[in-house]
């Protein structure tokens, strides 16, 4: 799952207009931002095995710190708590925590059973949508498209950057996704780890887009009418 996570982050603007798209990206992709670092440190492992599933050539052998349900709940509380405290908003904290957790739930739909419930716990979860390319594409493109649509109607560009940085971001995400799906498998795990770290640029891109757009009054009205006055 790749653009589906970003889709949910985009969608969160609808219920949390004061949450920057960058923070939403950080939350929704948090465990996939952690994972490449843990790979490089040798604390988690992955194998490249073309044909492992129809969609991905990766076999996720061991990733309890980034991708076990219990650990993800911990990351959700930690990140949600930090953002909630910084922004003095239980609501924003809850949205961030939900986004962190949503990553595991979306992963569980597509991964073959490789997601642990807890570190050191034998049971592995995954409904295996990755065994079907059309099904994977259908669900992921749908979540992404709906999310982008919700974001674009909940905000409007305040300048040209606000418009074109968003279009560029959406196009770039789609391009990476197509490259992942139809491009050659990565040559070595080290390449996956470095490409994974490059995702931090997408978080920055999210902040950049969001700084050049503002929430539409219709979005702010039900959630935070006070925000209209400053
Ligand atoms: Zn993941």
Number of strands: 6
> Helix- and strand-based class?
mainly alpha
Which oligomeric state applies?
single chain
Question: What are the distinct ligands in this entry?
Answer: zinc ion
Reading the helices and strands in chain order gives HHHEEHHHEEHEHHHEH
In percent, how much strand structure appears in the residues? 5-15%
Q: How many strands, what sense, and barrel or not for the largest sheet?
A: 2 strands, antiparallel
Gyration radius, rounded:
18 Å
Principal-axes geometry comes out as globular
Can you give keywords for this protein?
two-stranded antiparallel sheet; 11 helices; mainly alpha; binds zinc ion; single chain; 230 residues
How would you portray this structure in words?
With 230 residues, the protein is mainly alpha-helical. The chain is built from eleven helices and six strands. It has helices at 3-11, 21-28, 30-40, 64-67, 69-87, 90-110, 133-154, 160-182, 189-197, 199-211, 217-223, and strands at 45-48, 58-62, 115-116, 124-125, 155-157, 213-215. A two-stranded antiparallel ribbon has the order 1-2. It has a two-stranded antiparallel ribbon with strand order 3-4. Helix 2 (21-28) packs across helix 6 (90-110), helix 2 (21-28) packs antiparallel against helix 10 (199-211) and helix 8 runs antiparallel to helix 10. The longest helix has 23 residues, at 160-182. It binds zinc ion. The site of zinc ion has 5 residues, from helix 3 and helix 6.
């Amino acid at each position: 799952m790749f653009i589906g996570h970003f889709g949910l982050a985009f969608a969160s603007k609808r219920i949390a207009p004061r949450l920057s798209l960058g923070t939403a990206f950080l939350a929704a992709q948090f465990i996939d931002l952690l994972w490449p670092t843990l790979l490089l440190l040798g604390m988690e492992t992955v194998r490249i095995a073309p044909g492992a599933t129809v969609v991905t050539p990766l076999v996720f052998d061991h990733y309890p710190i980034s991708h076990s349900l219990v650990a993800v709940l911990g990351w959700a509380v930690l990140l949600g708590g930090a953002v909630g405290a910084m922004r003095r908003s239980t609501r924003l904290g809850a949205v961030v925590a939900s986004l962190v957790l949503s990553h595991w739930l979306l992963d569980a739909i597509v991964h073959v059973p490789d997601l642990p419930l807890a570190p050191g716990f034998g049971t592995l979860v995954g409904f295996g949508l990755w065994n079907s390319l059309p099904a994977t594409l259908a669900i992921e493109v749908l979540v992404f498209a709906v999310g982008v649509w919700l974001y674009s109607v909940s905000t409007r560009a305040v300048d040209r950057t606000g418009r074109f940085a968003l279009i560029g971001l959406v196009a770039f995400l789609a391009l990476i996704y197509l490259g992942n799906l139809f491009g050659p498998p990565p040559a070595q795990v080290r390449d996956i780890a470095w490409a994974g770290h490059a995702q931090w640029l997408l978080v920055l891109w999210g902040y950049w887009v969001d700084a050049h757009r503002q929430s539409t009054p219709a979005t702010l009205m039900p959630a935070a009418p006070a925000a209209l006055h400053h």
